[in-house]
Amino acid sequence: MTIKIGDQLPEARLAEYIDVASEACSVGPSKVMVHEATKGKKIAIFAVPGAFTPTCSETHAPGYIKAADQFKAKGVDEIWCISVNDPFVMGAWGRDQKAAGKVRFIADGSGTFTKALGMEFDLTKGGLGVRSQRYSMLVEDGVVKQLNVEDSGHLEVSTAEKLLEQI
Length: 167
Description:
Belongs to the peroxiredoxin family. Prx5 subfamily. Pfam families: Redoxin. This protein is 28% helix and 29% strand. With 167 residues, it is of the alpha+beta class. The chain is globular, with a radius of gyration of 14 Å. The two termini are 25 Å apart.
């Protein structure tokens, strides 16, 4: 089953690696419990097939980082980038993208959240394992309000610009 508008996000434990401790997150991999982290918040989420991949690094993630202030102006509390990668890779990618304070780079290391959403993408034949489809969503208090799923190999409907238009 694939998640749809109006559905509650599934509970899952994700992980985030940051370099500087804050009130909300200690240095090192910290757990991000989806229900707890989305409670009472409006969150823009975009997912990518892999960290450091060309389309993800050159276009998808930079679009959300550049638009962070526009999202905040529309009442979005946080922007999350989710990928089926480990938290160390996601932390390094976030640093590389200069995303601190703009976009949280959150790992779905085992792909359990991605599978619960019905968004897994099997690239095993190519040696890449099971990844996430490319998508974006707007979530309010854990409920999906907008959802944009890309056709394989495309970046059109899940861009920051498209999600901003829908808010």
